[in-house]
Amino acid sequence: MLEFSVIVGSTRYGRRGRIIADWFIDHARRLEQAHWTLIDLAELCLPCIDFEYVAGTNSHPVEAVNKWKTLVGHSDGFVWVTPEYNHGYPAPLKNALDHVYDEWHRKPVAIVSYGGEAGGARAAEQLRLVACELHMAPIQAALLIPSIQQRLLDDPAAGLRDREDRVANLVNELVWWAATLKQGREHPLDWPTT
Ligand SMILES: Cc1cc2nc3c(=O)[nH]c(=O)nc-3n(C[C@H](O)[C@H](O)[C@H](O)COP(=O)(O)O)c2cc1C
């Protein structure tokens, strides 16, 4: 069975990111028989990056970092849930992305973004560039959620109802890419070289 991780990219007190990630994963689980795991960076509590540790030259064990690497390594595909902060994505998300390298390789990522009128589009586009550098496949299907504050004033499910079709499309695409790339990782094609 395919393994997907939905990563909550905002960590601040009072954030809306967890509400959106919970809503998304609830729909994804109903749509696709796969393992969907929610990873909340606020609960993981990664330290600020220490490249000596990441490179393995510092033997000081950091439990959260090991856990994070294992979670990413076991995943076949990802959903990064990000707000837009000052036309970018949150620093804790970048810190988390940079802690891991090989474990991201040749895996797809879909981006769910939210914010004001632009629905977090600027943060999402920047994350696509980061994903490429991590040897990932950022997929075209995305979910942008504009006017997030107004949508979540009362019932979040009602406020997000018009985005449900997008979730279905995103999940379909992500599953296709995850299955295809998993096959490719496990059984690389023996391409003719001449
Ligand atoms: C530091 C900060 C900067 C923000 N900058 C933007 C921005 O540039 N564009 C935008 O659409 N919304 C911006 N917002 C509004 C957020 O997108 C909105 O508050 C969202 O709920 C934040 O995500 P969170 O609740 O998960 O932390 C900003 C919010 C914060 C806290």
In helices, the fraction of residues equals 40-55%
Radius of gyration: 17 Å
Number of strands: 6
Which structural class do you get from the secondary structure elements? alpha/beta
CATH structural architecture: 3-Layer(aba) Sandwich
Question: What proportion strand?
Answer: 15-25%
* CATH class wording: Alpha Beta
Listed once per kind, the bound small molecules are: flavin mononucleotide
Keywords:
45% helix; 6 strands; 6-stranded parallel sheet; 194 residues; Rossmann fold; alpha/beta; binds flavin mononucleotide
Describe the structure.
Helix 1 (17-31) packs across helix 9. Helix 6 (121-133) links the parallel strand 4 (108-114) and strand 5. The radius of gyration is 17 Å and the shape is globular. It has helices at 17-31, 41-44, 51-55, 63-74, 91-98, 121-133, 148-151, 156-159, 164-186, and strands spanning 3-8, 35-40, 77-83, 108-114, 137-138, 143-145. It is 45% helix and 16% strand. The mean pLDDT is 93. It is an alpha/beta fold. The N and C termini lie far apart (36 Å). It has a single domain, classed as Rossmann fold. Flavin mononucleotide is lined by residues 10, 12, 15-17, 83-87, 115-116, 118, 148.
